[in-house]
Amino acid sequence: MRSIGSPLRPGTRRNADNVIHVRTSRILALLAGLVLVAFPLRAAQTVEMLRVGLVGDAAAVASLRTLQAGGLGRTSGFDSRVMSRAANAPAAAILADLRNVDVAIFHRGPGSVSEEDAAHVREFLKSGKGCVILAADPAAWSMVNEFQPDVLGATRGDVFAGGAPVALINLYPHPIFGGVSGLDIRAAVPQFGELAADAQMIMEGTVGEATAPLAWVRRRPTGRLCHIVAADDSLLADPAYQTFIANAVRWTVGRSIPQATTAVQRTFMPEAYPGAFAVTLPGGPSLCLDPVRGGINYIWDGDFVDLRPRWITKQGEPARIFGPVFYREQAWQPLRAGSPSDEPDFQLRGYTFRDGSPEFHYSVGGRDVFERFESGQQGGALLRRFRVGPGAPPLWMRFEPQEGAEIIVKGIERDGDLACYASTGAGEFTIEIRRKGDAAP
Amino acid sequence: MKDRSCCSTGWPRLPLAGRSYIALAWALIIVALAAEVYAQNARISGRVLDRDSREPVANAQVRVEGPALASRENSQAIRKTDAQGRYQIDVPPGDYSVWATAPDFEETRLALTLAAGARLARDFNLQPMQSSSAYRIETLTLPRQMIPEISGISFTPKGSMVVTNRRGEVWIREAVSGQWRRFASGLYEGFGLVANDESDVLVIQRPELTRVRDTNGDGVADVYATIADDWGITGNYHEFTYGLARDQRGNLYFGSGMVSFGQGRELPWVRGPLKTELYRPWTGKGPVPDGHRSVAQLQGWVFQVSPEGAFTPFASGFRQPLGLGVNPDNELFVSDVSGAWVPTSVIMHVEKDGFYGHPDPLKWHPEFKDRQPTLEQLAQMRRPPAVYLPRGLMGTSPGQPVWDVTAGKFGPFAGQMFLGDVSSLLMRVDLEKVAGAYQGAAFPFLRGQRLRLGGMHNAFGPDGALYIAQTVRGWMSTQGNEGIQRVVWTGENPVEILTLHLTETGFALRFTESMAGSATDAPRFQVRRFQYNYHPLDGSLRVVEAEVPVTHARWSPDGRALQLDLVELQPGFVYEFTVDEKLLSRTGRPLVNRSAYYTLNRLLSGETKAGPSKLIGQAAPELRAPDPVRGGEIFRLNCMVCHQADGRGSKQVGTPDYTAPDSPLKKPEGELLTIIASGKNQMPAFGNVLPAQSIRDVLAYLRATFLPPSAQPGN
């Protein structure tokens, strides 16, 4: 790129004969450059563009178009279309296109639709595609008997707190909030209750001592779902809220979320010593790092922990995890210095965020060890990137047999269930933990 | 499959109907027992009213304390009044003190004796507090995304406010812009902090002391460095890590609370060693009265971390060291909350290697871990609190002490200590060093005036206002009770007792304003003194309580100083002062707070042991003739479990047969009274639980019921 349009390189002769030649070559190079630049962009757009169907009744059209023009526009990587029937139009089929979208956003619900469209909706809900519901209104889902509570994962009740606006907006860590700041909700919201066991609340409103879920996500076998309770016109026009909804769309199909950061919370985790870390990488997976035991207690394929059991109650239950665990360790101090049978001396020294990723610092037998967590190249894999400081004692790592995961070690020698970093100098190695059955790229 | 039914053990198999019959029978027995217990209870009910307006006082607290409630937390029962000011409390029969308190009202107390089945109606007429316009309470507006469980507050040298909350976040309000930003997150219940500057904050969280820094200048912390994590944790909900305080040398101080032991489900996962057995086994009857214990390493200790990062277990014997603060002279003070071995809430001057009362943390002490100190030895080892904070007017769970170093921006109390409480209360403490050790007076400072609950941490801001961090989640209603308030001095001089110091003959009081006193003022000062028991029961009642007559009241010519001479002064007592409401300043204004509590550990001479007293005779209530009927009630409540209803005792338990020919009840009365009061062999001491009259009553019941007429005293 730098040579295009740049002054002549040293040694290039400038004369009348070669002016045209140079100009021609510049033009060709420019064109080639443009092609080179444009092609990947186009290719990327082809890969990234998400087809989104915006479904609502006639009253919702204006709001949906606002959303379409805002957070769900083409520049954000969405190919969205509004599917709505005009107020007095005959009940013709308008939702057949749901077959051709990756994600559907239902504003309140499909409303009064033809039997043919109702069948399209029912088919969509079983298709495994992403589903975002804004301000679910069971009356607008009368054609889907099982919508509430089976699909929604909750039951709608009366207006929350007598219609008082929420005083606090509690955002639980989740990639959906990547790049979202300044969320605010002023209008009255309905109270949803009886959340399904797999419904992970990600936003909660509070008035006095009363709380109401404002958004939750579900990983249903028939597709991911996100329900956002508040969705009035002013919110849908709010750029922060539009980003929130666009992220929800991405999450429902497992796409990466721009500006999503690694979530780290020290808390009381199940099957871990108190003060363990819950870590969720934006591209997955999630893990429980136990600084007392000195290793990763487990890795699960899912989003961040639900901290409400710890935070809302007095007694404080452990945090709840959502998603299957595919890796577990139990042995005491898997990282050791000197020899693998030496009495371990493991100390947590803290952690540092580098480019959004946490790097944990341990002292193992007096030797500095830094461990950075990244998403593996393979979807859902965890890459543990180690840096080791200089020191005399060799560093050992013990592995445990895994039924659900395979372990790929690079940069150090592995012998059975042990690997050794023998150098006395500084160095690096990686350990990738892949879920078994997932194909390598 | 092996038959594990009842038949295999030789028991006859009952038809379902038969088993149901047994279940029904058990249910009836339980109902009957419950009904009996209910029938034994007494009830006090009534209304709490505004004395002046006769309007009901909603949400007033009615608190009943008495020996018959010894098995309950702090030997007390508490009820709140409803919207109509009504309350109702059922308690076992016994002698009680009943207090009624409410924000913006003076406290009222009465003494009652309730017989079994009694139904007593008592209304409380609360006197509205003098409203003071010297201080104004303001509530800060917080970002709606900040969960306002504010559990720590500090100011940077530039004046930015830095707070932490129980969700593990750190927020900064920039001094210049007033804008809030979330600086850090992901901590495990932040509970106190010290801010070095706007990008460098020390936070105490449950598992460690952490230094949180923003090193790339984006306003958000990127480095979380572990400074210390050398103590044990279990995951129990109550093992808070309290702090954080720093002295001028840069030493940091924090403390570890004990677990509330009971469920134990978290205990398979313990950082460090686990010791669940009590250091001093509970030998009383029934379950351990207070479940708090030190099961993980160094729980119940206060720690020091040097500027170089060296961790030192600094002092031991704390139940829940809720608040830590360093005074302008670089000395550490710690508040602790009432429970076992902490008879009422306290403030302690904490020095290295000191032992401050609760023995369970000694199981981690290198010298004492294998010893079995007696109660007397513990009492000798224990350093007495600088100040007792009697329950009620002085709150329930005191927070972090801070000192007024505002150079007059906060009013006339320069150099004095202020601390909040989980109740809506702000206290003031005037300490003095007597014979080398701190002791002093505690005063209520602010109650009501829309002061919220949960003010456990506080800090003076650069504007001279006192900022209070408030959180109550899990303990009280969070509705409108969490966040940050600040107390601002309006510039008006408050009419208060400024200082209360010990003299050789009594106390010297100094007022913030010239008072309209006279030479005949002695009766305007009611002085009572009492002690607390140092024991494993959950809190202590006031014991050996007596009124101490004021013999002389001498005012200084300017009306600001008053010398009160008392009939006598004894060390080891708390002196309670109540000033008559008619005492006014020379400008005609009444005192805002008319009560004070001076903890007299030492006389000016250094004497710490009480000598012969002129007041003992007056202090001890006159004993009535023993009442065997009342004694029977006390026996059923306190003694029957071990001694059995028929008085025949239990070989398994080791209790004697009162009906036997060699009945121990035939021993001399004095010896028997001593055994009941002081205990013998397995018999626990009831002297801390039952008043002298009750002990006499129960002995009368035992003799009247279980001895044959021929063996009765006098025959």
What do you see in this structure?
The complex is a heterodimer of chains A (441) and B (715). Chain A has helices at 16-48, 61-69, 115-125, 233-236, 239-252, 308-311; strands at 50-55, 78-83, 103-107, 130-134, 155-159, 168-171, 190-193, 200-207, 210-220, 223-228, 263-267, 276-280, 286-290, 295-300, 325-328, 335-337, 346-354, 357-364, 367-375, 382-388, 395-398, 405-410, 413-415, 418-421, 427-435. By secondary structure, chain A is an alpha+beta fold. In chain A, the strands form 5 sheets. In chain A, strands 2-1-3-4-10-9-8-6 form an 8-stranded mixed beta sheet, covered by helices on one side. By secondary structure, chain B is mainly β. An 8-stranded antiparallel beta sheet of chain B has the order 28-29-30-31-42-41-37-38. In chain B, strands 1, 4, 7 and 8 form a 4-stranded mixed beta sheet that branches. In chain B, helix 6 packs across helix 7. Chain B is globular, with a radius of gyration of 28 Å. Chain B starts with 15 loop residues before the first helix and ends in a 9-residue tail after the last helix.
Mean pLDDT rating of chain B: 88
Give the biggest sheet of chain B.
8 strands, antiparallel
Q: How big is the Rg of chain A?
A: 27 Å
What sort of overall outline of chain B do the alpha carbons produce when their principal axes are compared? globular
Q: Largest sheet of chain A, order of strands side by side?
A: 2-1-3-4-10-9-8-6
Number of strands of chain B: 42
Kindly, what is the distance between the CA atoms of the first and last residues of chain B, rounded to a whole number of angstroms? 68 Å
Structural class by secondary-structure content of chain B: mainly beta
**Tell me about the biggest sheet of chain A?**
8 strands, mixed
Short description:
The complex is a heterodimer of chains A (441) and B (715). By secondary structure, chain A is α+β, with helices and mostly antiparallel strands.
